[in-house]
Amino acid sequence: ASTSTGPASLLDASDMTWDDIQLYSNLGVDGVDRGYQTLADFLVLNKDYVVFLDPKYTHYNHYDEFFEQLKGVPKNQVVIKYYFDNEILADKARVNGYKSWGYLYTGDLSNPDLVKFINKWDMLGFPHNASQNDWDIVLSYGKPVIGHTATNSTEYESSISKGASGVMVGASTTVDGVGRYEAPPNSSRLG
Description:
Elements: H1 18-21, H2 39-45, E1 51-53, H3 63-68, E2 78-83, H4 87-95, E3 99-103, H5 114-118, E4 123-127, H6 132-139, E5 145-150, H7 153-161, E6 166-169
Parallel strand pairs: 1-2, 2-3, 3-4, 4-5, 5-6
């Protein structure tokens, strides 16, 4: 079987069986093969963390299946994340008892349905490099705002200085004060 050095070299996983996926490698930044994990196994191994889950390109017809996979996971361990205009997912998160994070960009501030959409989310995300004026607009809605996506300490501090309640970090090894994620012990291929 061929192996992958990352998700970019995979075929469309939605067309693969779990056995097919297990033929590929999931290499960590340290080069160690950790294998692919089911969502349930990943959440068990990372039970001490709050995990922001983005179902990415999952069609809304599969949202019930997505939430079914979360059964038994403590509600305070998961935050459902997606682009701010996906009110269907925000509603499903709430109905299923999860907090939600809708992220947006500066160009979205002119969306005529902005308020309708952001009212569906518990938290908002906004770019670290947006102007203070734009940050003030987003902060005025009274929800926690998380800056995104910081890849260095300057970007991290920019979000905090503009009023962010937290910051999504894309490269924790390059942001001072943010710990590098260490895979839990025994997180190699799960039987």
